[in-house]
Amino acid sequence: MSDNKPNRKKSALGRGLGALLEDSPAKHKSEEILPEVVKTGIFEIPLDQIQVNPFQPRVHFDKDALSELSESIKVQGIIQPITVRKLDTNEYQLISGERRFQASKLAGLAQIPAYVRTANDQQMLEMALIENIQRENLNALEIAHSYQRLLAECDLKQEQLGDRVGKNRTTVNNYLRLLKLPPTIQAAIRDQQISMGHARALINIEDVDKQLAIFKKAVEEELSVRKVEALVKALNEGKPEKKSAPELDPVKKYEISKIQQRLASHFGTKVSLKSNDKNKGEIKIPFTSTSDLNRILEILEII
């Protein structure tokens, strides 16, 4: 008995630390309770295992542009992987790259290269917003809504939001002010009927009816940003809008031009003749000296 005990002890020690750990009950227990480790890196993931990003700030995608990207993917494949987070076994959620994801589905791909990373909801929202602003050229209204979500859902202040997206507080505030505009004007920004510059000018009108009136005029007459700014300034200062003179019809324009040429030939100098649609106007005959004036007066038989 005594001879066997040392041998068993020596035999166990001789197997080494690794062998002892293999038999350890604690090790087997830890293997059973350890959660699955989320591996990060680039993997080929089936498209049907990927959910769209609920925090995606872009709502509208250009169908023609999406179709062009799909055709490119058919020929070239996916050049840049999308980014996803793992939710569960065989279940992922987009962080960024929805255009590539949608275009890949159109192209008939079964799987797509994706960079897998861990992210919570706040990080998802922030990454989706920044990705789209930097790469997808969101329209001004989409940016405004995204900024608002960051402030509300991530409990950020405007200065912090500016740091996140690389914009100063004034720029962030200008976007957020767009959300105070009437729905009709917001829709026009979304549909690119008017620009951010037009919208910023319209924001400065407090009366909604007047705001909508100038907006309608800007769209119908395709006014420039500068013209809209001038209209808003005149309105806020209480100045009446200057109406431009109506254009003469082509026939009358030609007649005026011919008379002007005959007058210039008669007086031997350049003559300016202007007339409006009510047949009112003026004639200007310039002179360069006293003798030139006397010459014109002689022709008029005034002296």
TrEMBL record:
Q: Please provide the Gene Ontology terms (biological process) for this protein.
A: chromosome segregation; positive regulation of sporulation resulting in formation of a cellular spore
Q: Which residues form the ParB-like N-terminal domain?
A: 43-133
| Any one annotated GO CC term | chromosome
Q: Where is this region: Disordered?
A: 1-25
**Which Gene3D superfamilies does the record cross-reference, listed alphabetically?**
1.10.10.2830, 3.90.1530.30
Which GO molecular function, any one, fits this protein according to its record? DNA binding
The record's listing under InterPro entries reads:
Chromosome_partition/occlusion, HTH_ParB/Spo0J, ParB/RepB/Spo0J, ParB/Sulfiredoxin_sf, ParB_dimer_C, ParB_N
Q: Which UniProt keywords apply?
A: Chromosome partition, DNA-binding
NCBIfam families for this protein:
parB_part (TIGR00180)
The text of the family note is: Belongs to the ParB family.
Name of the protein in question: Chromosome partitioning protein, ParB family
Q: What is the phylogenetic placement of the source species in the record?
A: Bacteria, Pseudomonadati, Bacteroidota, Cytophagia, Cytophagales
